[in-house]
Write a structure and sequence with these properties.
The structure is a homotetramer of 304-residue chains. Chain A is an alpha+beta fold. In chain A, 49% of the residues lie in helices and 11% in strands. In chain A, the strands form 3 sheets. In chain A, strands 3-2-8-7-6 form a 5-stranded antiparallel beta sheet, with helices on both faces. A two-stranded antiparallel ribbon of chain A has the order 1-9. Chain A is globular. Chains in contact: A-B, A-C, B-D, C-D.
Chain lengths: 304, 304, 304, 304
């Protein structure tokens, strides 16, 4: 039986003093001011055990990791109709995000690229009475922690500088793939990305994806089939144009965010969250990627 | 000596009852309600003569034709610096307008595609004290007609539905190629496109491009070199992805608009404006293109 | 314990009389003449059991399935240097295959698209003394069947009509990513694709990918890590622009070929091969895709 | 009346000692060995006068300049059917030449990009009994000089290294836009590009484009309309992705080749040829571009 505590402690020890830690996201002050020396891991196993090392209790901006949670919330609300508005293919593409959207007539390549997540946000804005409140409650319930919150300063900074997202939302609107006002969808989207969680909270929130759709509290949020399909999307699309690399090197479904967090999971076994704010050139946590590579190398635990 | 009146009367007679007139632009009510049976021509010669036929005195929405006039106004204000922010190459491209902008890092391909015209609009918003008032006065002076005006209803309709332009402006902003707020630039842009002019007014306004930069009133608005260069841009970029076709079939510098107007000119000789609201699939006036092809075939007058 | 015989018999019964079976590949006579009504499955389990149904003993053209086998043979010969010449990212792209190659300076997106497989073929041509003989022997050994052979008529037909592959190989050569002559690489490539195998032989040949690199005869062909990585590439890149869809609907690493075969596998458990010659519009076996979807739905066996 | 001799002598004096002369094409030995210090001009006027300066009698490889001559020869043979197989729009594109071809289903953007010239070559191979002999005779007659010849060493070097052209021809073949064998079309194409001519011979050969289709010997090779249209294509497509720049800065129809030659013309007035082997980053003669800019600035002679 794998001694997870020992494994993650060793990873932490091996990597924590690395000089090359990548660059902290700099496009808004709130992200650029984060101390790059922080590094934490948390693993939650299906058998009930939890393992932590490093800065696993410090909250950070989850950013794109939130896209998996909005997808999980939207899927039961909108059912398979969602796949008429967003595809499930990897974008495989470091460039031309809007061009893909143009070439494909406003159908985003998958729900984990920004344009796809905007369509999912649009669905939640349409289907929920108080979208921001209800989504926050959903995340709190998944993580079983009522202290989780939006960072309103981060959301406002994104609103003031997120011109690429305004461009994407307007392009979706031009293709009739947004039901709501561009500003309303983006307000929701900037808030979802601003949520702050720590490694443990994320491992808990993603537990249901490893557990056939059932969260840590035993509630059945997703059917087994939908949980499985979201895992497939994470594997093929969760790391921008490094998705293939992550599948190749790590071999677990997962999702990264520019706040430096990565959540990954082995279905039927565990979720694992790593946080280190410095990013590699592709926008994924540099130490986070290395930590997960080392983790699956040492434990031989992967879906492949 | 060419009998211009006879030529344009014959063109008018040959084409005016055509059944296939293309489709009137339908994306805003103000354009979709225009009667497609209208058809007018006006030719203004450097020797002082003018020739009209058909509905040459009825004002229509000049739309993209305005891009040549903003460029002419911006060039003396911003000088050759403008070419650092927008290129002069044909886009040659029916699709992927935003993708080109992405591939080329926010430098629009030329000042006559929407993204390029937004950069020019941004320059005017920065350099003019009252941009909308001053540009309107510029157009009135060029056409020597103080009654020319914006159509505020058209401008407002564009603001409410012009999502593609919002997308382009935000993308330019993301690439730091807009100095002003997206909304301010678009407000100016939607107004410039909404200007209403008739064939005669347009022939007069474009007279300076055929006359080394000197307008009908004798004022030197542009240097000879700049007038020549704007003509070159019109020839290579004036008809979206039909620019090559227009050079090939007609052989005159010109610019079209989705209102159904086309202005063309033979340097040192004349300007000619055609208006018919129905558009071909590429967005250029269907009868207008045919009229100008017939005109250069019959007169043998072209730059080639 | 899953009753595999019962499951595959039911799938066969449910699908065998489907009217809509897709279109048989028609670009060469040898493929277009195959009877579309054939349908077979074979499953080989790690515990030694085998299960067959339908036309599981009839050989067909393995086509692109061969790309996984050349990759497996090349990897130990060329080691990690291979990843300097070919990437591991999904192409996610139904169109522009050569354009991707241009955009990415001659580095194919992954080893399972044609351009990537040509680079792998080039490696084998460089490293093997008698490339075609040695590769064929490798496949025979993996499948433990010395009767497997090339179909020389198919290979010659491909040579006469495979202009897209000639284009790709020449483009690779222009980017200095082929060491050998274009004709030599293509000769090898057309032969590898022409190999004929039946469902059982393919399940046997792919057994090592499910079994940590150890083939049915107990020979260690690949390290555990490399077997795992090839599985990751199959999952993210094995089905052209339907890779995301296959991961989403089926959830197994696999590879399809235009001959109508699909091999898939659950690591540590089994390999399964399906054959039905009719293809869906993306070029994957129509019944084959449906059969594997039904298989993972009914058995709940997938990597997710 | 313009003193052309004085103008070109001044240009020659101003530019001949420039240190920055660009880089000589290096992809085949025959081009890379050319002395970059050579610089010549020749102008042939419709009134019969000729003007030369510098190395105007030294033959060089005309390369892509030949594409205009094959088009002129093919047009009467194939008539307007040619425009079903090749378009007349500028490519405006420094990259992705093959991708454009893919996006546009095998219809090259215009006859002056390589793919388009291959289609024109295919037409000549189909329509002529002895394609290479007859085309060479056509060029000799146009230039009124029977000494003009292919450089067979250059043609053979291109055949051995022109992988991009092999890629393009095979892609055209895949789209059924080549009637003949790839090798036959490329053999013709590599020979047409290898023709060696000097500035005077080129000015003479292109005389018909300035003279309504009538060559220096008074023979009517092209209708007025077709001569005009080829001029339009030269203007919009003659300089790769610098076509807009050339129209903007020079304002004459023209065509460049990687041998360092540029031919330009003012319809009804003159042809002018410049040669300097060093190329700018876009592949056009660096001094040649500067010489023509200076020429039209000083003479004020342009089509605009």
């Amino acid at each position: 039986m794998t001694d997870f505590q020992n494994v993650i402690d060793k990873i932490h020890a091996d990597l924590k003093d690395k000089v090359n830690r990548g660059l902290v996201a700099s496009y808004i002050p709130e992200l650029s001011n984060v101390d790059p020396h922080q590094f934490g891991l948390h693993l939650k196993h299906m058998d009930g055990r939890s393992f932590s090392t490093g800065v696993s209790q410090k909250a950070f901006s989850i950013q794109s990791i939130s896209k998996v949670l909005t997808l999980a919330m939207a899927l039961p609300l909108y059912s398979e109709n969602i796949w008429k508005r967003v595809d499930v293919e990897p974008s495989g593409n470091p460039f031309n995000h809007l061009s893909l959207l143009e070439l494909e007539n406003g159908i985003p390549r998958n729900p984990l690229i920004n344009a796809g997540a905007l369509v999912v946000a649009d669905i939640l804005v349409s289907r929920l009475t108080n979208p921001k409140e209800e989504f926050l409650q959903y995340v709190r319930d998944l993580a079983n922690d009522q202290t989780i919150n939006y960072n309103y300063v981060v959301a406002e900074s994104e609103r003031l500088t997120g011109f690429n997202n305004f461009a994407a939302a307007n392009l979706l609107k031009a293709y009739h793939n947004l039901e709501n006002n561009v500003d309303d969808v983006l307000d929701f989207y900037f808030h979802q990305c601003s949520i702050e969680m720590n490694c443990e909270q994320l491992s808990n929130a993603f537990f249901m994806f490893a557990n056939h759709g059932i969260c840590t509290q035993g509630k059945h949020h997703l059917t087994h089939s939908r949980a499985k399909r979201i895992n497939a999307i994470m594997l093929t699309c969760g790391f921008y144009d490094e998705a293939g690399e992550f599948a190749f090197e790590v071999g677990l479904p997962g999702k990264s965010g520019v706040g430096g967090g990565i959540v990954a999971l082995l279905p039927h076994h565990f979720t694992i969250t790593v946080w280190s704010p410095g990013l590699n050139p592709k926008g994924n946590s540099l130490l986070g990627m290395q930590a997960l590579e080392q983790f699956t190398s040492e434990t031989k635990l992967s879906i492949f």
